[in-house]
Amino acid sequence: MDKGIFIVVSAPSGTGKSSICQRLLQVCPEIKFSISYTTRVPRPGEVDGKDYFFISREEFQERIERGEFAEWTENYGNLYGTSIKAMKDLLAKGEAVLLDIEPRGAKKIKQQFRRGIFVFVLPPSRAELLKRLEERGHETPAVIRARYAQAESELKEISWYDYVIFNDNLETAAKQLISIYIAQRCKRNHLQAKIKQFMNKK
Question: Fewest CB within a 10 Å sphere: which of 53, 90, 97, 152?
Fold first, then answer.
C-alpha cells in the first residue's frame, strides 16, 4: 500500500475553518483527524480525546523535552502540539490525515514530512473577519483586537501554502476543500504502488 498523505488547513480565527474541516470529515470518513494536545481548558461541549487531548502545562513541557511533538506553539498563553508518533503511525499505515493547525505549526510540519497538502482559508474580506470575531460574543474587546492582530500576521504566510480557499459561502468552501483532497488522492505519484500492481497483473 502507498504511504499515506495529510492535509493541513490553516486560517485566522473567525474564518470558519473548523466548520469546513468538519464537512470534509463527514463526506470523506476515511480521513483521520489529528487530535492535538493542548494546555487550555475545555470549552463547553468539547471532549477529551476527540477534540483535543487536554493536559497540564507541566506534562506538555515534559513531552517537549522528550521530543514527542512534530510541532508545538503557544497561543494566548496556551500550548498546542501535534504528536509526531501519531502522525508517523497513521502515514505508515497509508491513512489520510487532517491537521487543523495555525501557520507556525504548519511550517514546522512542512519541514519534516512529505506528501502534505497545505490549504489556507480566508474570509471574504478583512472587514468581514473583524465582524465575525466581534460576533462571537464570548471574548473581550482586548482579546478580539489581539486575535485580529494575529490574523494580520498570519496572512503573510499565505505565500508558501499550496491552495487558498475564500470562505464566502460555507458549502462552496467545503466543496473546494473536498475537491482538493480527492484530486490529491488521484495524483500519479501517490498511486505508484497501485499502478505497479495493476501493470504486473494480467
Answer: 152
